[in-house]
Specification:
Layout (H helix, E strand, L loop, with lengths): L17 H12 L16 H18 L5 E6 L2 H13 L7 E5 L2 H11 L4 E6 L22 E5 L1 E2 L4 E2 L10 E5 L16 E5 L10 E6 H5 L11 H6 L9 H18 L2 H20 L6 E2 L10 E5 L3 H13 L14 E4 L6 H18 L2
Parallel strand pairs: 2-3, 2-4, 4-7, 7-8
Antiparallel strand pairs: 1-9, 5-6, 8-9, 10-11, 11-12
Helix pairs in contact: 1-7, 2-7, 3-4, 8-10
Amino acid sequence: MNPRNGLNFSGGPGALPESVLREVQQAIIEVPEVGLSVLGISHRSDWFAAVVTELENNIRSLLGLGDDYHVLLLQGGATQQYTMVPMSLLLPGGAPADYLDTGYWSAKVLPEARRQGPIRVVWSGQDNGFRRLPVDEELQFATTAPYLHYVSNETVEGLQFHRMLGSDEVVRVCDMSSDFLSRPIEANRFGLIYAHAQKNVGPAGVTVVVVRDELIKNAPEDLPGFLDYRSHARAHSNFNTPPVFAIYVVLLVTRWLMQEIGGLNAMDALNRTKAALLYDVLDSSESFYQGRAAVADRSLMNVAFNLSNTALEQRFIAEAEAAGFSGLKGHRAIGGLRASLYNAVTLEAVEKLASFMADFRHRQQR
């Protein structure tokens, strides 16, 4: 394997586990039980039907969900969900849905939702530059809202909710694209969760949607088939030609989570250790490294930080790349630096990055 694969701190697509990459390598040549490359296996084959069934069951098992939830493997990324959610859940002439505006990706959701019906922005972090998340006292949710929508982890700004929002009286809808299956959650208290795969659970091309059955039963009857959750539920994610390869890789990642990692509690403990190690480098640097997010809202997935000037940041990136580290440049929207610590990023890789950062600081401060 290319050693750079082990030092991939990209914000997305993110790293994949080495054992999964080895299985994928074999499957591209030949899936042993089929005798064909995974890239050429029919989406109508019995083998692929078994892949989908196992993956649905694995995700239910990891999240502790029963058969009253559908697990859908869709296309269009999280971006398509920005539209599908309000198309399905906003009621004509009804009360507005509640939305939170907590960062770059939350802001992307709002205009798409407004195209479908009324929404209300309960809180926005624009005035503080999206450097913190709201405390409970700042949030006044409407009990009449058809649903509450929020993003659990903002990858660009490095912000993450470490609590569940809202009440069980109103349907929770959450974009968990960048922290899905990274920690245990009370999934049965959400009406709908969506997550594109290319952070923690697989390659680009597939989006996981977990939706309560009763929630989609009352969706409008005139929805286009491709944008109707019921179409995909009835077809077990085979309504149209699905991304067979991407779905297969997600299956392998869920097996890795269950069999090698030991479930979401173990994954969470490892992710917390990785994040603590890197945040300690920031906090002990005497402001050489400047964390972007408020301490209480720091993301376990994305560590966003700055140096004192752009020239020094560019030097950091150049030296990091020469040392074999990949993906440390901040998002184009805000610049700076960012280390993404998704599930497949190993503790060893984070230790190497922490050591590099300490060494870089000492060399610059001589």
